[in-house]
Automatic annotation (TrEMBL), chains A, B:
Keywords attached to this entry: Dioxygenase, Iron, Metal-binding, Oxidoreductase
Stated name of the protein: Catechol dioxygenase
Residues covered by the Catechol dioxygenase N-terminal domain: 34-107
Record's signal peptide: none
The protein's required cofactors: Fe(3+)
CDD domains the record matches: 1_2-HQD
Top-level taxonomic group: Eukaryota
Annotated Intradiol ring-cleavage dioxygenases domain residues: 117-293
Length: 309, 309
């Protein structure tokens, strides 16, 4: 018996309402539907109906939900993905991210943890040379020298030619394409290749905490649930290398007040880092951070483990 | 222990992933959130996460869902409510409707069953006189005399001054505001008051089966799930009277091919009716249908039953 069938049966036992209704909706799925789609929608329909039954959702509440779902798409634009944001606010992207990327290692060889991509990554970020700065427009932040190595999580050896793709909001809490009047294209974005010793280094900003936009559905949820809209300050990183599993992640300054209550639930312990005072004529902070990638053949946490029976 | 807490605990036992994640998201709800909102969102977050864990939703599948949710709002207009349609296609409106309106009667005094409102009811439908026709524009349908009484479901006595609000699609499957080139405003809509004997009568069309619009998210779901997009032919009715619980419902011709597979799951046995051949110089079909309303003080099926312990 599949999990979905089991759930549907459990609902049957406890519900005061038509015990066959959910199974009837699932049974409407036709024979040409592929197995994975059938699995996903059977589970989705079961949980949607169980949710409605569990809280005995009223007509008015359902209708409020209908309006809310329409609002999500209506406020979205090519520069604003509110469905993405809504799924972040409900923890869904972090959960999917954990299932996709959490790595397992018998020997304790733990690569850098992943964190959600978020809606602000750009496929068009330029390559820049090590030692260059991603700061291209005026700001009020603390210039930071960020440096480290990219390492193999198993052998601990440096990875040559790994790509560190970094993006961050400016000191006003906005990314370049949210803020075209103040920031030039690709401000605070760049890709860097590790050298023959696996080293990368560049100048960026100590990141600044910011509020998610509160003028749409996500803002309505924050108000409704009495939650704050802040993300802790963070820098986004996407680290890739041939023959290694890529890592999409974020790093957070350890003294940020929102570390424990990130409104998109993306903080993990090994992603909390220390920006220390420093002076080299360009920067006033330094962040030293080695990044660790798992070889492509290492099993993922979500992979089935061999049976010992 | 509440249902939500229990579900979260069950997830903990079976998940290979962070066992505290869902509870952390629920715990982010602040102290000023009202109890009902907390109940709804705790259950919603639990079921959303349990769904994702149960099917081990991939990043690509999640991202497809994000795009899909945005599409729902983007295609919606004042004349097109795709979130409403989507919730119908997944059975949610029929489920909420059952919980809100199903009536219980120890004595077997069953009022007319409810069915979903759907997105085409209009608050502006005009009152018309008994014997009048709601057909105001050209059509290719079968003119029908519909007549009957509105009755008290307990006493079986006629209800005077009850309002029967009727709306239906034309023979091309479209409602007036979907089809302004062919149908005048309020074509195939009208409200009728029962007379001193509880009688109503008017001319309408034998309804025609139609496909839901397939050019948007609902259409994509039909294709993905190998489901047909048809509703059985139906007439919408909203029956109201002072001191009675109103009834929103639909009636379906018994020989319609989609009776068993209504794509919005709204058909109930007592709503299947017989349009019989007839001739009065105006109509070629007749439908005789008594409608039955529950007194306001009758308990609903969803109400708690007194404990016998």
């Amino acid at each position: 018996m599949s999990d979905t069938t089991k759930n549907a049966n459990e609902s049957k036992k406890t519900s005061r309402f038509d015990p066959n209704f959910t199974q009837n909706v699932i049974n409407a799925i036709g024979p040409k539907c592929d197995d994975r789609t059938r699995e996903i929608f059977s589970s989705l329909i079961t949980h949607l109906h169980d949710f409605a039954r569990e809280v005995e959702l009223t007509t008015e509440e359902w209708m409020a939900g209908v309006k809310f779902v329409n609002w999500i798409g209506q406020i979205s634009t090519p520069q604003r993905n509110e469905a993405h944001r809504m799924s972040d606010v409900l923890g869904l992207e972090s959960l999917v991210d954990e299932m996709a990327h959490a790595q397992m290692s018998e020997a304790g060889d733990i690569p850098t943890s992943s964190a959600i991509l978020g809606p602000f990554w750009s496929p068009r970020a330029p390559f820049r040379d090590n030692g260059d700065t991603i700061i291209r427009s005026p700001h009020e932040g603390l210039v930071t020298l960020m440096k480290g190595k990219v390492l193999d999580s198993v052998t601990k050896k440096p990875i040559v030619n790994a790509v560190v793709d970094i993006w961050q909001a400016s000191s006003n809490g906005k990314y370049d394409f949210q803020d075209p009047d103040n920031q030039e294209d690709n401000n605070l974005r760049g890709k860097f290749r590790t050298n023959e010793n696996g080293d990368y280094w560049f100048y960026c900003l100590r990141p600044t905490a910011y509020s998610l936009p509160t003028d749409g559905p996500a803002g309505a949820i924050f108000k409704l649930l009495d939650r704050h809209p802040f993300r802790p300050a963070h820098i986004h990183l996407m680290i890739t290398a041939d023959n290694y599993k890529g890592c999409v992640t974020q790093i957070f300054p350890k003294d940020d007040p929102y570390i424990a209550t990130d409104t998109v639930f993306a903080v993990k312990d090994d992603l909390v880092v220390d920006f220390v005072p420093f002076e080299d004529g360009k920067a006033v902070r330094k962040l030293e951070l080695d990044l660790s990638l798992a070889p492509k053949d290492q099993p993922a946490k979500g992979d089935p483990t061999p049976s010992t029976a």
